[in-house]
Amino acid sequence: MKLPEDKVIITVAQTGALITKSMNPNVPEKPEEIAESAYACRQEGAAICHIHARDEEGKPTGAKEVFQKIHDRIHAKCDIIIQDSTGGAPNIALEHRGDCLYAKPEMASLNMGTLIRVAGPYAGTAFLNMPKDIEAFVTTMRTSGIKPEMEVYSHAMFREVNNVIEKGLVERPYYINLVLGMRYQGAVDATPKYLNSLIDFLPEGALFNVTAIGPAQLPLTVMGMLLGGCVRVGMEDNIYYRKGELAKSNAQLVARAVRIARELNKEPATPDEARKILGLNKPV
Ligand code: KMH
Ligand code: ZN
Known about the structure:
Number of strands: 17
Structural class: alpha/beta
Bound molecules: (5S)-5-amino-3-OXO-hexanoic acid, zinc ion
Helix content: 25-40%
Shape: globular
């Protein structure tokens, strides 16, 4: 499946689970900050915002009420597509990672395999996504009309992609996020060769998005656009604008992606254009 050549869908991942204000003071954490930043990113050309929630102390939370607050504040400001994370964070138990789905986002992430954390305070723990967990998440999404974005971190994860396709649990166009450069065991590095070879494994009927971590965000998102994909930028994956210079905002990273897209004769899709391309149900 092909994205129209003159379009790119830009997702912004603004907050994530692991970035703190001590790493970059501009990371939005509170619902008001997340909504304000989503609005600024929408103004710059983002069509989708990928959401992680934080509690009052800035710790990741899976609480539905916090996701609901974030949704309400974003909806009050703009029409950007909300995509909640079911990947959550290391401190959110697997049984609670899907609680955000009760806040009824239009989209949600669906992680397609298990990874092992190898560094930091959670080293040695698993980011667990067993086949039964994937099927449970996607079944809830399906019954709630939520479009999954399938997160693929290595070639082996296409087995699970094919499993949910074969079981009829996802609909075309399959939206697959190729995530490169996670410092986890089981995830591929962020190199052009890995990106090209992941694209080779896309099932028929799939649209792809490129998410690259850290300094690879800029070059691999440019490559993603050149190869006809969608792209994700934002501080969840990269807190710098360039080497040694922290990003001032998520909108600054979106604005750069849009400038590059336009140099390549591509316009950023509006949220409504992205809804059409992805076959999303209109928000209720
Ligand atoms: N942190 C990203 C590299 C999720 O939230 O479900 C992957 C991600 C997954 O965004
Ligand atoms: Zn995420």
